[in-house]
């Protein structure tokens, strides 16, 4: 999300590495945490599900289709959204889902954040 916010391009190499890491993380999430359960902590939604779905919505907001090609993860996403309520779920994620369409940060803010951001993503 930082490159989107700062209006900075990401190198193809960095993007490829980040997407590979995301893919591995999603596989671990499915295999070790979700397993064959309806929700992370069992048959009912919990705080763990709410925190996890919030984290997964960040790459979605950046344009990554994290649920595509992952039927187990997509089904869990649908269960979480249904448990929360579709309207509330969309409202809660509205800002992050619109982030990729927003204008980059003000140049003054961008200059202040750039050195910190670059050290985090390199």
Keywords for this entry:
68% helix, 122 residues, cytoplasm, mainly alpha, 7 helices, glutathione transferase activity
Could you characterize what this model shows?
This protein is 68% helix and 0% strand. By secondary structure, the protein is an all-alpha fold. It is globular and about 50 Å long. The protein starts with a helix and ends with a helix.
In short:
By secondary structure, this protein is an all-alpha fold. It has helices at 2-6, 12-34, 47-61, 71-84, 86-92, 94-97, 107-121. It has 7 helices and no strands.
What is the topological layout?
Blueprint: H1 2-6, H2 12-34, H3 47-61, H4 71-84, H5 86-92, H6 94-97, H7 107-121
| Number of distinct helices | 7
Output the helix-strand order.
Answer: HHHHHHH
- Give the % helix: 55-70%
Radius of gyration: 16 Å
Regions with little confidence, pLDDT below 50 for 5+ residues: none
Overall body shape? globular
Fraction of residues in β-strands: under 5%
